[in-house]
Amino acid sequence: MAIKSLPAEELLNTGNTGCPGCPSSLALRIALKALGKNTVFTIPACCAVVCLGGYPNTTFNVPVMSVAFEAAAAGASGLVAGLKRQGKEDTNVVVWAGDGGTYDIGIQALSGAVERGTNFIYICYNNEMYSNTGIQRSGATPYGAWTTTTWTGKTEGKKDLPAIIRAHGVPYMATAVASYPEDLFQKVRKAMSIKGPKYIEILAPCPPGWRYPMEKTVEMGRLAVETGAWALYEYENGLLNFNLKSKSILEKKSDPKPLEEYLKLQGRFAGLFKPKRNDEALARIQQDLDRSWDRFRKQVECGIA
């Protein structure tokens, strides 16, 4: 589909208080076009809850329940139960949470809601750190990245939460990035058509946290996919299916762009290149990425996830 085919109605008003170049706001705008007005959000402590706007006004044209950091999926479970009691089982109940409130603080509530088979869509916009509270490292922060709590570069790899979610046996899971709006729109629409717990993870490059110019957000998201640093795929009925550039990388029909093109644009990885190049760290990042793609290929070949 083309961008011009997306619904014209805007459910995210002007006055959003997000940072310039924020991909979460862009992704939210696209997701709301897919979801429509018959939607209720629950949002934990994160950038998005700040972007609601200053009280008593809001930029959202759908109801929003703001909850504590760890309680998003539990809050969604309550909304689903309450709407069911009112006979409103066709309402989209959606969690919109950052990686801190998903990978770390909110993982227990998310796991519980998924295990119970809650009929909701959990959307994690992953900027690979705690942006809203000062750019601290999270479980999604990649190896070698600067944050205010890993100022010499993170020494651990990131958690593979999508694999953890797939291990729960969810009926649908997908990855996306706002740089490919049509792909994101279609994945949200597909999630809406499936009963049970659905999980979508959106890579959300953050200009102040990743230290790149705010006008480069769309380019950064595309480069993440083109270098293979971020894979676009869907998990449905126990099978993985890759999308767009990620599909050709998986099938080795085209080579990914050099990973350094992606890393060098981000000031958070400056320590890997200055004052001198850290070949050992760069080799580890590339090896970890290659292993991830090899694992994807084996899973697709064997029909397992």
Description of the molecule:
This protein is an alpha/beta fold and 305 residues long. It has one domain (10-302): Thiamin diphosphate (ThDP)-binding fold, Pyr/PP domains (Rossmann fold, 3-Layer(aba) Sandwich), CATH 3.40.50. It has helices spanning 23-35, 47-50, 72-85, 100-104, 107-115, 161-167, 181-192, 207-210, 217-226, 244-250, 259-263, 279-302, and strands at residues 39-43, 64-66, 92-98, 121-126, 172-177, 198-203, 233-236, 239-242. The protein has an eight-stranded mixed β-sheet with strand order 2-1-3-4-6-5-7-8, sandwiched between helices. Helix 1 crosses helix 7 (181-192).
In the CATH hierarchy, the third-tier topology is known as Rossmann fold
Number of domains: 1
Net shape: globular
Reported CATH architecture? 3-Layer(aba) Sandwich
Q: What share of residues are in beta strands?
A: 5-15%
In CATH's first tier, which class applies? Alpha Beta
Residues in helices, as a percent range = 25-40%
Q: Please list the strands of the largest sheet in the order they lie side by side.
A: 2-1-3-4-6-5-7-8
| Content-based structural category | alpha/beta
| Mean pLDDT figure | 95
Count of β-strands: 8
Specify the CATH homologous superfamily: Thiamin diphosphate (ThDP)-binding fold, Pyr/PP domains
